[in-house]
Amino acid sequence: AARESRSAGRGPGRTADGHPVPLLLNIGSARDLGTGDAEGVGLFRTEFLFLGRGDAPSFDEQVAAYTAVLQALPGRRVVIRTLDAGSDKPLPFLGLPEEANPALGVRGLRTARNRPEVLDTQLDAIAEAARASDAETWVMAPMVSTVAEAAGFARRARARGLRHVGVMVEVPAAALHARRLLAEVDFLSIGTNDLGQYAFAADRQHGELADLLDPWQPGLLGLIAMCGEAGREAGKPVGVCGEAAADPLLATVLVGLGVGSLSMAAPSVPGVREALGRHSMQECREHARLALAAGDPAEARAAMTGAGH
Ligand code: PEP
Ligand code: MG
């Protein structure tokens, strides 16, 4: 039966030898859930609730938006990311000053330095929605750079009764300290879009630098490997929710690096499910070894062909 459902392009993600790899969705609202057979949500980008308006959404408004997603997925994991404003997502009501380098400025969790009440209200609303649903509510902060920031976020979230608290790895310093971050939080979620931007000092919206932002860059894969290794040691989940997770062949590399779940836009799920279903964990580890050892993205991709794929 498992084989039938897989050949029909459905069912949970797993390697050819049966290691589960949950394939989760990146969403901006309940509308993005589609037909509803998702294994869960790996990235709920809550900023869409905040963007393009003159004031913050109220507590009640937020509870309604989070509840709409949580109630659609009883028993499933839903990872809610707290507000990721600033940089390419400006938010007028936060009253942030103009910055010369917004990508290196007050963005993500850093906005809570000036406006802590915005984060506190959001955490209150997430906790309220979590209490009223049967979903497994996970919460994480974007743009965390230090262990102290992770610890501070965890304290605030746990004080509200949230039990699965994590941080995103989007800054190289966070990857370097993955082990120490996991001493403070329950899981890591690697945002490869920003991690690539900051690791290669290349604006993610700069078309001419696309080669540096290629998720097959061995330097980026090395940072992901550090996170995977730390997760294995700590026995805590490490996922990827950036664009890298949506590339079927790269998904096998990520799993081989120790990544336990992959989150992507719904249309990418079938291709990734199919690729994982064709490779054993042993093969994924071999893909990871070859990609890490490659000199550049082209060589990393070519090495997969050499490995018989
Ligand atoms: C990322 O940076 O990879 C990520 C998933 O977050 P966003 O694309 O929303 O910045
Ligand atoms: Mg990001």
From TrEMBL:
Question: Where is this chain primarily localised?
Answer: cytoplasm
Q: Which residues form the PEP-utilising enzyme C-terminal domain?
A: 8-277
The top EC class is transferase
The family line of this record is: Belongs to the PEP-utilizing enzyme family.
Summarizing the function annotation, the protein's role is: General (non sugar-specific) component of the phosphoenolpyruvate-dependent sugar phosphotransferase system (sugar PTS). This major carbohydrate active-transport system catalyzes the phosphorylation of incoming sugar substrates concomitantly with their translocation across the cell membrane. Enzyme I transfers the phosphoryl group from phosphoenolpyruvate (PEP) to the phosphoryl carrier protein (HPr).
Q: What fragment of the full-length protein is this? A: 240 to 548 of 548
Recorded catalytic activity of this chain's protein? L-histidyl-[protein] + phosphoenolpyruvate = N(pros)-phospho-L-histidyl-[protein] + pyruvate
Which range is the signal sequence, renumbered to this chain?
Answer: none
Q: Where in the cell is it found?
A: Cytoplasm
Keywords, comma-separated and alphabetical: Cytoplasm, Kinase, Magnesium, Metal-binding, Phosphotransferase system, Sugar transport, Transferase, Transport
User: Does Cell division appear among the keywords?
Assistant: no
Indicate the transmembrane segments per the record: none
Q: Where is this region: Disordered?
A: 1-21
Q: Does the keyword Metal-binding apply?
A: yes
**Gene Ontology molecular function, alphabetical:** phosphoenolpyruvate-protein phosphotransferase activity
List the cofactors.
Answer: Mg(2+)
Q: What is this protein called?
A: Phosphoenolpyruvate-protein phosphotransferase
State the superkingdom.
Answer: Bacteria
Q: What is its EC number?
A: 2.7.3.9
